[in-house]
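YM 10:42: Regulator of protease activity HflC, stomatin/prohibitin superfamily sequence, as discussed on the call
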Amino acid sequence: MTELVIPFIILAVLFVALALTSIRIVPQARAYNIERFGRYIRTLGPGLNFLIPGVDRVNTKFDLREHVFTSRPQPVITEDNLVVNIDTVLYYQVTDPKAAAYEVANYIQAIDQLTVTTLRNVIGSMDLERTLTSREEINTRLRGVLDDTTGKWGIRVNRVEIKAIDPPPTIKEAMEKQMRADRDKRAAILHAEGDRQARILKAEGARQQAILEAQGDQQAAILRADGEAQAVERVFQAVHANNADAKLLAYKYLETLPQLANGEGNTFWVIPGEFTEAVKNVTHAFAGDAVRSRPSTEKDEDAGGSGPAQLTGPDPTERSASAQAARDAAEAARRAVEDARDDVRRAGVAGTRGTESAPVPREEG
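YM 10:58: structure's back
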C-alpha cells in the first residue's frame, strides 16, 4: 500500500510543478516576448497567460512606460570653431516589444549614439551665440531625427531637451565681460534718460514759475497803476473843485520836498530849480496878505508914489503897524523856508545842483 502511494505523490508534485511553469502573470504596462524552440512566437500582454512547459520560454521583458535617459556631456564644435559641452535629456517609450528586442541589440546605446551624432550635425551649422539662444530649435531638430530613426526599433522619442551648454572658460569670461559692458551701457543710457527727463521737467517748472510770476507782476503793476491813476484823478478833481491858486500849490510843494529825501537809499539829492520860485510865491503870499490889509493910501506910499494921497493917508502910527505886520509875515515865510531846508539836510542831502534859491525878500518899514 505504501509502495503505491509514493508514486502517486510524486506524480502529483510533478503535475503541480508543470502547471506552475506553464502559467505566466504579466503586470500592467509590461510585455513579455515568448520564444518556442528559439523562435519568436508571441508577446504576452498584462494578465494571466499560459505557456507550454519545456517548449515556450520568456525571452525579453519590456516596461512600456515612458523612460528618461540622460546622456553624458558631449564635446561639440560650433560653426565658429568653438568647443562646447552639451548635456541632453531624452524621454522615450517602447511601443513595439518585438522590434525593440529583435531590430536592435541595445536600443539605449543606439539612442545615445544617435543623439550625439545628430547633435553634432545640428550644432555644427550654428555659431556659439545662436547655439546659446536657439535651444528650442535644437530640441525640435533632434526630436525629428531621433523619432524617424527609432521608429523602426519600436521606440518612440517623445521629447528631447538640452540640459546644459557649457562653453570654454575663456569664452565664459569674455561673455561675462560683454554682458557686464552691456549692463553698464544700459545703466548709463537709463541714467542719461532719467537726467534728461529731470532737466526737462525742471526747465518746464521754471518756465511755468517765471510765467506765473510775470503774470502776477503784471497784474500787480496794473492794479498799482490803476490805484495811482485814481488817486491822481481824485486829487486833480479836488484841486479844481476847490479852485486852488498858485500860492497854495507852492506851499504844498514846499511841504512835499522833505518827503522826497526820506527814501532809504537816498544819499544824494538835488534841489530842483522850482524851489526858488516856490519860496518866492510863499513869501509874496504872506507879504501880500499884509499889504492887502493896509489902506490904499499906504500901498501908494510903500510903492513910493507922490500926490495928494500922501497928504490924506493915515497917521504914521498906522503905517508903522502895517509895515511891522508885513515884516512879521516875511519872517514867518523865511522861517518856513529854513525849516524845509533843515528837513532836507536831515534826510541826507549831499549837495545841490541847479538854480540856487533866491534870498528871502524883506520889506523895510
